[in-house]
Amino acid sequence: MLSNEVIDLLNDQVAKEMFAANLYLSMSGWCFKNRFDGAGEFLSQHAEEESGHAKKLITYLNETDSQVMIQSIEKPESNFSSLLDVFEKTYKHEISVTQSINNLVDFTFNKKDYSTFNFLQWYVSEQHEEESLFRGIVDKIKLIGDQSHGLYLADQYIKTLINK
Ligand code: OFO
């Protein structure tokens, strides 16, 4: 049985994962509109992953007989200045999600809620992978250059990361 505080924090995390899904869908739309089809597809797929992260938390809440409380989600940004801007923002966003997961891990450990602490380890590994993935894309865009030919190559590179 989970404490009310942990239930509230897990429900907050569900909202954060759903916001991430919406943010990445919004970014995906911007990419398609600006002819970055590789990045658009990649971000659309990543939005699905974020919905999966939310669903996994919901399943855990259901399995522990806790009340799922779906919250209203803030509208994500939809205007970006460049492909680099999009991916710098994804990276920044992932860092904020990591912080939120770390706070949850810390809280559950201090409260001796070892079941939730253990469940959250999956998110700890996932955040490590995601930060590294998005940082890698930012670095690559900078390396290839954000002028027209470079942008085409960057988009092609991002396309290779779909389903990885
Ligand atoms: Fe991309 O982060 Fe979810 O957890």
Give a topology summary.
Blueprint: H1 4-33, H2 37-63, H3 83-110, H4 114-144, H5 148-159
Bound molecules: hydroxy diiron-OXO moiety.
Residues 17, 20, 50, 53, 94, 97, 123, 126, 130 line the site of hydroxy diiron-OXO moiety (OFO).
Protein model, in words:
This protein is mainly α and 164 residues long. The protein has helices at 4-33, 37-63, 83-110, 114-144, 148-159. The protein has one domain (4-159): Ferritin. The chain is built from five helices and no strands. Helix 1 runs antiparallel to helix 2 (37-63), helix 1 packs antiparallel against helix 3 and helix 3 packs antiparallel against helix 4. It is elongated and about 55 Å long. The site of hydroxy diiron-OXO moiety has 9 residues, from helix 1, helix 2, helix 3 and helix 4.
The third-level CATH topology is: Ferritin
Largest sheet: none
| Strand and helix order | HHHHH
Strand-residue proportion: under 5%
Provide the low-confidence segments as ranges: none
Write out key terms for the chains shown.
164 residues, mainly alpha, Ferritin, 5 helices, 0% strand, elongated, binds hydroxy diiron-OXO moiety
In short:
The protein has 164 residues and is mainly alpha-helical. Helix content is 78%, strand content 0%. The protein has a single domain, classed as Ferritin (Up-down Bundle).
